[in-house]
């Protein structure tokens, strides 16, 4: 008798489980962004970005406001490289707050005060450290000034969520 109840209970749970609709959560492959670097264009990956990124259909999109190089207290280093490093740390904190990973970032826009070619190495190093091979599309905009006078760098992001 006990064995029969056990089989019915297991069978009942199985039947009940079949009747429960599956929770629709996207798996990692469904969230994967498609990076496009056409062979007929210069490969931008050496500079830390991709030509285009395709987001999977049905995903939500989040926009992260420009993150500057201020630390938690609002302090801002006068050093460009330190500001860039802190800005990417701040971007990572914003991603974490959204429950997102760097490989879910489809697009970056970076603003650089008094941009010159010497700053590209710093920018490329930081973006490659954060994104690895999953380089987002990216636009760099040279600007004469940002919101706060000592700010030298700012990064904003478009993030694809599940």
Report on this structure.
It is a single chain. The protein is of the alpha+beta class. Helices cover 33% and strands 25% of the residues. It contains 4 helices and 6 strands, in the order ααβββαβαββ. The strands form 2 sheets. It has a 4-stranded mixed sheet. Strands 1-2 form a two-stranded antiparallel ribbon. The termini are far apart.
Q: SSE layout and pairings?
A:
Elements (H helix, E strand, L loop, with lengths): L1 H18 L8 H4 L2 E3 L15 E3 L5 E9 L11 H19 L6 E9 L6 H12 L5 E7 L9 E9 L1
Parallel strand pairs: 4-5
Antiparallel strand pairs: 1-2, 3-6, 4-6
What are the key terms here?
single chain, alpha+beta, 162 residues, 6 strands, 4-stranded mixed β-sheet
Characterize this entry briefly.
By secondary structure, the protein is an alpha+beta fold. Helix content is 33%, strand content 25%. Helix 4 (120-131) links the parallel strand 4 and strand 5.
| Gross morphology | globular
Q: Rounded to an integer, what's the Rg over CA atoms?
A: 22 Å
Q: SSE order, as H and E? A: HHEEEHEHEE
Number of strand elements: 6
* Overall pLDDT level: 85
Largest sheet: 4 strands, mixed
Please count the helical segments. 4
Structural class: alpha+beta
Strand content: 15-25%
- Termini separation comes to 48 Å
What is the helical fraction, as a range of percent? 25-40%
Spatial strand sequence of the major β-sheet: 3-6-4-5
Q: Which regions have little confidence, pLDDT < 50, spanning 5+ residues?
A: 4-26
């Amino acid at each position: 008798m006990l064995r029969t109840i056990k089989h019915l209970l297991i069978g009942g749970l199985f039947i009940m489980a079949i009747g429960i609709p599956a929770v629709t959560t996207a798996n990692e492959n469904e969230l994967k962004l498609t990076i496009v670097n056409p062979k007929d264009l210069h490969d931008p990956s050496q500079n830390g970005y991709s030509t285009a990124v395709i987001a999977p259909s049905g995903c939500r999109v989040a926009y992260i406001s420009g993150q500057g190089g201020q630390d938690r207290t609002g302090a801002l280093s006068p050093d460009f490289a330190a500001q860039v490093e802190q800005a990417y740390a701040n971007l990572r904190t914003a991603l974490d707050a959204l429950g997102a990973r760097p490989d879910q970032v489809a697009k970056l826009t970076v603003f650089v005060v008094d941009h010159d070619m010497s700053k590209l190495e710093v920018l490329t190093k930081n973006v490659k450290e954060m994104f690895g091979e999953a380089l987002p599309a990216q636009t760099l905009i040279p600007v004469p000034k940002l919101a706060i006078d000592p700010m030298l760098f700012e990064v904003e992001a478009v993030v694809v969520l599940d």
